[in-house]
Amino acid sequence: MALIYEVIGETPLVRLQRIPKAGRVLLKLESKNPGGSIKDRPGFQMLKDLLDEGKIDTETVLIEPTSGNTGIGLSMAAAALGLKMTIVMPENMSEERKKLMKAYGSELVLTEAALGVAGSVTKAEELQKSLPKAHIVNTLVVYTLVYIKWPFLTLIQTQVLINFRP
């Protein structure tokens, strides 16, 4: 039986036969990832890289301000790797998202809805300062660095190219 991170990215390719007129179009069904989105790929890879580089260990509390699928992907990856994850998000995010992240073992810290994600970023920074061993994953910075390195690719294309295999 495969480990959860071994099946990330092993999603089917589907060919569109009737829509394209001038070429072959293939779709990668990222919704078939274990966490339900393409965010499983970068979530796992970022945490694995941090571990491999010695920037975090199993005692580190990982923190990520997010409002969506990135938090789910990171929560799943943290659970698979035996890491502690705290997700900071606006209180008005869907109950389904909250339940899924909690099911993966993440702690949720909810911020005032009116402050949006900016309020979550501020709270994440406060949490990091208050904990003896904490690290903000900071996916927005990682995505920005990817754009700088490969500016001709879109974010989704870049995520697909990430080598997520252990």
UniProtKB/TrEMBL annotation:
<feature type="domain" description="Tryptophan synthase beta chain-like PALP">
    <location>
        <begin position="6"/>
        <end position="139"/>
    </location>
</feature>
<dbReference type="GO" id="GO:0006535">
    <property type="term" value="P:cysteine biosynthetic process from serine"/>
</dbReference>
<keyword id="KW-0663">Pyridoxal phosphate</keyword>
<dbReference type="Pfam" id="PF00291">
    <property type="entry name" value="PALP"/>
</dbReference>
<dbReference type="InterPro" id="IPR036052">
    <property type="entry name" value="TrpB-like_PALP_sf"/>
</dbReference>
<dbReference type="InterPro" id="IPR001216">
    <property type="entry name" value="P-phosphate_BS"/>
</dbReference>
<protein>
    <submittedName>
        <fullName>Cysteine synthase A</fullName>
    </submittedName>
</protein>
<dbReference type="InterPro" id="IPR001926">
    <property type="entry name" value="TrpB-like_PALP"/>
</dbReference>
<dbReference type="InterPro" id="IPR050214">
    <property type="entry name" value="Cys_Synth/Cystath_Beta-Synth"/>
</dbReference>
<comment type="similarity">
    <text>Belongs to the cysteine synthase/cystathionine beta-synthase family.</text>
</comment>
